[in-house]
Amino acid sequence: MNVADKILAAQTALLWDHPFFGVLMLQLKKVDATDDPRIDTMATDGRHLYYHGPFVDSLKKEELVFVLAHEVMHNALEHHIRRQHRKPGRWNKAADYAINGELTECKVGKMPEIGLISPAFTGLSAEEIYRILDDENNGDDSDEGSMDGGGCGGVIDGCAPHDEAAIAELRAEVQTQIRQAAMAAKAAQAGNIPAGVQRIIDQLLKPKVDWRAVLRRFIDDSSTRDFSWAKPNRRLLPLGLVTPGTISDGVSHIVIVQDSSGSVFDDEPCKAFSAEINGAFQEGAVDKLTVVYADAKVQAIKEFENGDELVLRPVGGGGTAFADSFRVITDRFPDARAVIYLTDLEVYDFGEEPPMPVLWGVYGDPRKFDQLTADLPFGEPISISI
User: How far is residue 68's CA from residue 304's CA, in Å, rounded to a whole number?
Assistant: First the structure.
């Protein structure tokens, strides 16, 4: 049996036994990439399945079934459009770890011996696993080899990392394919989809909340604003573009509290969240920012006004408690329109609710988000794991 026929036989088996993954595999154009030095197993970019002939030949049928399901899961989880600035080899490893535990639990084929799996990573996102791998490797790039990054199948960027239009198009494609595959699986299995596979489908179809959009909505809602030519948009001036900026009906003052306890101190999601706030500040959506650094108590306070550059340098590193933060905010900054609290929510002392809205930017294991936020005494939570 030649390589193409072997892939077709495995795809057919996948359709019979696990139609959800099989229908997704039907969407991919198969490409022989044996001569591509980047690919020594398999890889996908959302629209193609690239395969290395000798690798396919080396697999037993149940192993090939697993690898095909592995590849479509890369696409279903949008790994081909989520890499951003991350190193390709390490991103592939992280994405493999995110997939293989789930597929093994669902008993889809048999994972080849070279597959990457760890119980500690099962259920985590590729972004969270990447951060852990990056910390463990201390920035070492020795895993930057082939597209598969050392696993049993890899993922290739479907477009340029910052091409928003192309990313939106690919995301729409894969969401449509997931819905179609879910309906086909339900029909083929008379509604009796295995619990593990159904859990994967439910997670893939669950609406994804864009925390950046929620953050901007929260900031914009903190004051009534209008446009004015008397206050041009400063971000566009260096480009030679003069456009109207925004003015408010009063000072839009927002307090940001950065939980600088040892558990969240100066981590990547914190930096991404801070960058979004900084962007809103530089665009004129906020007139004044007060940044509070706190662990079990307030450690430092910095104030920034329009025209300043927001620079965040956390101070602290101890335990976690919120009571002192909200006491200081209520006493010293009663004019604040809103409070944004960046934290992992690993705390029992929330303190008293302040007299202004609170947005919790929750960093940490996304599997714990619902549990951590279930009993929040006040405020609106968003998960900012990236």
Answer: 53
Within the chain, where are the H helices?
3-17, 19-26, 53-58, 61-76, 88-105, 126-137, 164-188, 195-205, 211-220, 268-282, 323-332, 369-373
The last residue of one of the domains, among 186, 205, 224, is: 205
Q: Are residues 185 and 240 in the same domain?
A: no
Let me know whether 364 and 223 are in one domain: yes
182 lies in the same domain as 217:
no
Instruction: Identify whether residues 185 and 233 lie together within a single domain.
Output: no
| pLDDT, tens digit, 9 for 90 and up, residues 121-137 | 988 888 888 888 877 77
- Predicted confidence (pLDDT) per residue in 215-266, tens digit: 777 777 665 445 555 556 655 556 566 665 655 554 588 899 988 775 554 4
197-206 average pLDDT score? 80
CATH classification of the domain holding 319? 3.40.50
User: At residue 272, does pLDDT exceed 60?
Assistant: yes
Percent of the chain with pLDDT over 90: 40
Calculate the alpha carbon distances from 347 to 67, 196, 202, 369, 370 in Å: 42, 32, 30, 13, 15
- Residues 264, 297, single domain; the answer is yes
Residues spanned by the domain of 182: 3-205
Of 23, 12, 131, the closest CA to residue 65 belongs to 12
Q: Residue 135, exposed/middle/buried by CB under 10 A (0-12, 13-18, 19+)? A: exposed
Residue 238 contacts by C-beta under 8 Å, 6 or more apart in sequence? none
Q: Are 149 and 225 found together in one domain?
A: no
- Predicted local confidence at residue 158, as pLDDT: 95
- For the chain, the domain total comes to 2
**Do 10 and 78 fall within a single domain?**
yes
pLDDT at 177 over 70: yes
Report which of 191, 99, 88, 180 is spatially closest to residue 143, judged by C-alpha positions: 88
Considering the domain architecture, whether residues 219 and 161 belong to the same structural domain is answered as no
Task: Mark which of 149, 171, 205 sits at the end of a domain.
Answer: 205
Give me the residue label for tokens 């430092």: 300
Q: How many residues does this entry show for the chain?
A: 386
pTM for this one? Answer: 0.63
Distances (CA, A) of 248 to 80, 222, 232, 287: 41, 10, 14, 8
- The position carrying tokens 């340029």 is 160
Q: Residue written as tokens 């405020």? A: 379
Closest listed residue to residue 56, CA positions, set 150, 152, 151: 152
